[in-house]
Write a structure and sequence with these properties.
This protein is of the alpha/beta class and 408 residues long. The chain has 3 domains: 2-122, Rossmann fold; 152-217, Dna Ligase, domain 1 (2-Layer Sandwich); 223-384, ATP-grasp fold, B domain (D-amino Acid Aminotransferase, Chain A, domain 1). The protein has helices at residues 10-13, 34-45, 78-86, 103-111, 113-119, 127-134, 136-145, 159-164, 180-187, 197-207, 270-280, 312-317, 322-332, 350-362, 368-374, 391-407, and strands spanning 2-4, 27-30, 50-53, 67-69, 97-100, 153-155, 173-177, 192-194, 213-217, 226-233, 239-251, 257-263, 284-293, 298-305, 346-348, 380-381. The strands form 3 sheets. Strands 14-13-10-11-12-15-16 form a 7-stranded mixed β-sheet. A 5-stranded parallel β-sheet has the order 1-4-3-2-5. The protein starts with a strand and ends with a helix.
């Protein structure tokens, strides 16, 4: 693990990057958590130099496979990352491969795609399509146009607009931002839940006018009804691979980040996902999440991602090394062939899964025996810890404990 300021000296970098002439240019991973770490480990083990634009407490900062760019003490984030990449401080990294690992990183590429493409190497990228996948309203509107099922949703821009649709609303519902990453930065959660109209008004007043939101019907049922489809769309819109998985649990339940995933073969996800991606003209990496509605047995759209996601370690464990796939496609035009993946491979965050168990147990939804049985599987991988690169997990634990103590 190394920390390098952005005033990169040619004496330091010239032998390491040789971006314009080398067959193995470095990669710059922008933002991300466990997924950024998995990208760095994959590329680093393949002999590729990895630089990380990320926050000071990000696990990738402490990996032996990455070097963190501290930006001379500037506050990390999309604005500072953009200034670095577009400015002279990054000139010695010209020709590097840019890989967004967060919505902020993706938004940065959308906003400055033409300029960044002139200086760095980018994967297949259609800014308007990527923006449509980033914006929840545009995603749902595109899905509705091509008959992909979604929860009921309403666009509201004022308290009076909320009152106008009061009789149409169904509860519980989600107060969902159009751009989740901006909302998370303010509130620490991806959305707010309203059980009735009074809670909806309270949530609306809490949010204020700083975030554009939509109201979305909350699909009932446990988190285990959530499932995802991953693919890569080439220049002609052809799917170069297909990978599906399910979520077992999230923390907090029904609204948090998945803490246990399992691979599965779910072919019924492919057709609606293909219609949605074709409608917006998406190219490159694509991921879509659905939830099975127990009321009518229909899969309904939850969200999309056009980048490497938090579950990337699971795909990597199954032989789907997306980081190396992107790198080789960008630099060498190669198309690695992915074999079929096994079912019942698990990705497990033990700390958050234990916390999820406590909440579900208090609600009478999961017994200790059921939880112990569910975690007794042997084909398991962890999102952060690896014996060959343990420091990120240690530091991640330390940062989480420190944040918890501050909250207390």
């Amino acid at each position: 693990m190394s920390t390098i300021p952005p005033t990169l000296t040619k004496s330091l970098l010239s032998s390491e990057t040789a971006c314009t002439d080398s067959a193995t240019p470095p990669a710059i991973v922008i933002g991300g958590g466990a997924n950024a770490l998995s990208i760095a480990r994959s590329l680093g083990r393949s002999g590729i130099r990895v630089w990380a634009l990320n926050y000071a407490d990000a696990p990738v900062r402490y990996s032996r496979f990455a070097r963190w760019l501290c930006l001379d003490g500037k506050t990390q984030g999309k604005t500072a990352w953009g200034e670095f990449l577009l400015g002279s401080a990054s000139d010695d990294l010209e020709g590097a491969v840019l890989i967004p690992a967060s919505d902020d990183g993706l938004e940065l590429l959308i906003e400055h795609h033409a300029k960044l493409k002139r200086k760095f190497r980018l994967d297949l990228f259609v800014p308007d399509a990527q923006a449509a996948m980033l914006n929840k309203l545009k995603t749902y509107q595109a899905a509705r146009r091509v008959g992909v099922e979604t929860p009921k949703f309403w666009l509201v821009d004022s308290k009076s607009a909320v009152n106008q649709v009061r009789d149409e609303l169904v509860f519980p519902l989600l107060v969902k931002p159009l751009l989740s990453h901006h909302f998370v930065a303010t509130f620490g959660v991806k959305f707010l839940v309203a059980e009735d109209f009074e809670e909806l008004i309270t949530a609306w007043e809490q949010i204020g006018e700083d975030h554009d939101v939509m109201l979305v019907e909350k699909i009932p049922g446990p988190d285990s009804q959530l499932c995802s489809y991953y693919t890569y769309l080439d220049e002609d819109g052809k799917h170069l691979f297909q990978f599906t998985k399910r979520i077992v649990r999230r923390f907090p339940p029904e609204m948090g980040v998945a803490c246990r995933h399992v691979t599965d073969h779910i072919p019924e996800l492919i057709e609606p996902a293909t219609r949605l991606f074709a409608e917006v003209g998406l190219r490159g990496l694509a991921n879509v999440e659905f939830k099975l509605d127990p009321r009518d047995g229909v899969l309904k759209l939850i969200e999309c991602n056009a980048r490497i996601t938090a579950a990337n370690t699971l795909l990597d464990r199954c032989g789907y090394d997306l980081a190396l796939f992107l790198y080789q496609r960008v630099c060498r035009g190669e198309l690695p062939k992915f074999r079929d993946y096994p079912a019942n491979v698990y990705l497990w965050n033990p700390v958050d899964d234990l916390r999820a168990f406590f909440q579900l147990h208090r609600r009478g939804e999961l017994s200790l025996g059921q939880w112990l049985k569910s975690i007794s599987k042997t084909n398991v991988t962890l999102p952060v810890f690896q014996w060959s690169d343990p420091f990120p997990a240690w530091m991640n634990t330390w940062h989480r404990l420190r944040r918890a103590l501050k909250r207390r």
